[in-house]
Design brief:
Layout lengths: L11 H18 L10 E9 L5 E9 L7 E7 L8 E5 L14 E5 L10 E13 L4 E12 L3 H17 L3 H5 L1
Antiparallel strand pairs: 1-2, 2-3, 4-5, 5-6, 6-7
Length: 176
Amino acid sequence: NIRVQSSGDPLGALGDLGWYCIRLGLLAFGSADPARVPVACTALCTHYSSDGVPLEVEARVAFDKGGRNVLVFDYSFTTPLRQRYEIVVLGSGNAPGVPQIADKLITCDDFVIPRNPSSASFVIETGPTLSDVASRVTSIREPSSHDHCVQEARMFDEFAATIARRRAGDAEADAE
């Protein structure tokens, strides 16, 4: 497996799986806007191959100095069936000129290597809050599923379209 050999890909999991995670952050937090590119990043490699190649990495990428738009992820070659991502979008405190949006949580548990290569799905959760004396979470959960597609291409197309509509000030995109 060349992904875990220093002569093949010396960045290992960081160079392979980390790339997918960073692209999600760029899509979610506005890579087209120079003011919204990553401003800070920390990464901790917790497992290495005998060749010194990172096998497991935890990372945090900040997209603003205020800490409102942060991508936190971990990925690993040692847990190959764990392929989940989570993007948290905080509605208050957006940058000037960016339309206000409600707090959202976007999750997907079938990210890098698809279980079904012809379909893609993720869940958008809006307005999560604690209810009943903080004994349960209430929110609106909207599953989004797309069949007859190349999973990765469709997912990125859908994210890009939603973000483009939001940047254009489309009120319906804020609900997405």
